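Translate sequence into structure tokens.
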Amino acid sequence: MFLDEINITEIMPCLADPEKIRFIAYLEKDISEVFPYLNTVLKNAIYNHDGKTITLKKEGRLISLHPGKIAAGKIIDEQDARDVLEWLKREINSCHENKDTLKPSFERRQKLTALDIFKLLPGTNCKRCGDLTCLAFAVRLSAEDANIMGCQEIFAAPFADKKKMLLSLLAASGYIVPSAFVPAEIINKED
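Result follows.
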């Protein structure tokens, strides 16, 4: 096994959500050699090869991986912190074990801004997504607090071109897009 231990060294109140915690955990070794493989597997990660960091959001949690440590926020409690670390350890070990069959990705995915997304939404402010405006929905979508499936309007025929462009952009940037809607050129690019 490549990585055996991850030790939580600090638990503090979360700065973004006072109901939650944040933590810092140290690793027994430098894991940066696995980052390009994690970047291939974790589609919503933002990888900085030169800075040797991977940042991702998982179910509302904010997680940053560094060569010898992990920092995370918006964690529910200590058990949740341990669960997140166990998941990460499995991902890291799996990538290391399968690195001969995985194609490393050194691509730096950029986080989409709400404005990038808003420009491709229908702009009808129909409120069916639960937000008052398309801009409010775009803000939640860019923060990965919403899923594109929440916008029913984008799937209507008049918005077919916008839908194709938006789904391509989301998929290429590592956002979760249901596989039935991922454009073929994105699927082929990742093979």
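Note: The beta strands are 6-13, 21-27, 46-48, 53-58, 61-65, 69-75.
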